[in-house]
Amino acid sequence: MKIQTMFFGPQNYAQNVRSVNSSNVNSNPVSKSNYCDLNFGNNDKAHYVRVFDPAKEIVDEQKYRKELLGRFYVPVKDDNGEIVTNKKGEPVTVLDPKIKGALDSMKFEFNGPHGEKFEGSIKDAIDRFVIYDKNSPAFILGVLHGCSKESIEDIVKYGPDMRKTTRSVFGPGMYFAVGEGDAQDYSSAKLIANLIRTTRPNGELGKFVRFDGAFYENIKNQQVMSALGDILAIEPEPKEYDPFIPHYIAMAKAETPFNVLDEYCRNVICDDLGIDVGYGSARGYHDCFVVFNPDVVQKPADYGSETLNRNDYSYSAYYGY
Questions:
Q1: Quick one: what percent of the chain has pLDDT higher than 90?
Q2: Cα separation of 226 and 250, whole Å?
Q3: Among 51-60, 122-131, 221-230, 256-265, whose mean pLDDT is lowest?
Q4: Does residue 276 sit within a domain?
Q5: Has residue 252 been placed in a domain?
Q6: DSSP 3-state assignment of 162?
Q7: Is the distance from CB of 111 to CB of 124 less than 8 angstroms?
Q8: Is the CB of residue 265 less than 8 Å from the CB of residue 127?
Q9: Measured in Å, how far apart are the chain's first and last C-alpha atoms?
Q10: Helix axes 97-104, 247-267, angle to 10 degrees
Q11: 129 and 273 in a common domain
């Protein structure tokens, strides 16, 4: 079967064209009204192309991704059994304990920070790349996070959403730069904030640590991802290519295990290892502070705002001189 991919203008954006007998379309679960008959001069077959509203497609994709990822999370409940909600009124969820328990019990082969190979848990592997310093600072002031204006407004109003983070070379967290130039590489709009160590329920301060190189690609190795795929058991895509299925289905299924691993590793770093912030530095990457505990992000504000009080992010003002 010959398969083509074609693209039309925004009013009739189309993709995934294939030649089929017209009778085959009626048996497809997707309505025939979603397809357009194209005449390429072939009298034997009718050619159909999937056409859709791009705006609706975006909404459908977001809904599908949310539902797919939501299978692997459970809601947080208070002492009365009521579901806890965040500032947006959305249910607060955590990674399914069964997934965490399964990954906790497994051992994998990893490469260490000095070229050594070892077998251990994901927690063991991450901990090998952590350099603990008892003299680490209690706070870091005036660091910058490059992101869109919309994201800045959302963070200022509701706080950071760690599941929306996209950088992960030094772990799945929220990345902050020390200077404007480094933050500018990610966005012309910038968020400024102070990072203040938190007090944990056991009375200890959250840790500020350093990472021994860019470690996270080592964690996301083939052995780990294969085991996680078995745990999640996401329905595989059909072996035979079906262009009538929206393209985002396969993309979402491929990306979801990485999203789940990010959540798991973030929990390991923040909760199991007690780390609030890590400092990352490696050749080819900007030096940065990586936040794993959103509670450390204090006084977030738009760096470009005319009403910004820069004294809030000044060490001299903080110490009173």
A1: 67
A2: 17
A3: 51-60
A4: yes
A5: yes
A6: helix
A7: no
A8: no
A9: 76
A10: 70
A11: yes
How far apart CA 49 and CA 45 sit, in angstroms, is 13
Q: Are 191 and 161 in contact (CB under 8 A)?
A: no
Using pLDDT thresholds of 50, 70 and 90, give the confidence band for residue 44: very low
Beta strand 117-120 with 108-111 is antiparallel
DSSP 8-class letter at 269: I
222: tokens are: 């083939």
From CA 315, how far away is CA 321, in angstroms rounded? 9
Using the structure block, give the residue that is written with the tokens 């470009």.
Answer: 304
Do the Cβ atoms of 206 and 296 come closer than 8 Å? yes
Give φ, ψ of 275 to 5 degrees.
-95, 125
Q: What is the pLDDT of residues 241-294, one digit of tens each?
A: 777 788 899 999 999 999 999 999 999 999 999 999 999 998 888 899 999 999
Largest Cα–Cα separation, the chain: 85
Q: Examine the domain organization and report whether 31 and 144 are in the same domain.
A: no
H helical segments located in 14-171: 22-26, 54-70, 97-104, 122-128, 149-158
Residues 231, 288, single domain; the answer is: yes
What type of residue is 103? L
Domain span at residue 232 reads: 96-319
DSSP E strand stretches across the chain: 3-4, 14-20, 35-38, 46-51, 73-75, 93-95, 108-111, 117-120, 130-131, 139-146, 174-176, 190-196, 207-211, 275-280, 288-291, 297-302
pTM of structure = 0.83
194 and 310 together in one domain: yes
Residue 161, CA atoms < 13 Å, CB-side half-sphere:
16
Q: What is the pLDDT of residues 71-102, one digit of tens each?
A: 999 999 999 999 999 999 999 999 999 999 99
List b or e across 287-310, with b for residues whose CB sees 16 or more CB atoms inside 10 angstroms.
ebbbbbbbebbeebbbbeeeeeee
- Yes or no: say if 87 and 294 are a contact pair by the CB < 8 Å rule: no
Closest C-alpha to 205, from 134, 104, 109, 299 = 134
Asked if residue 234 and residue 122 are part of one domain, the reply reads: yes
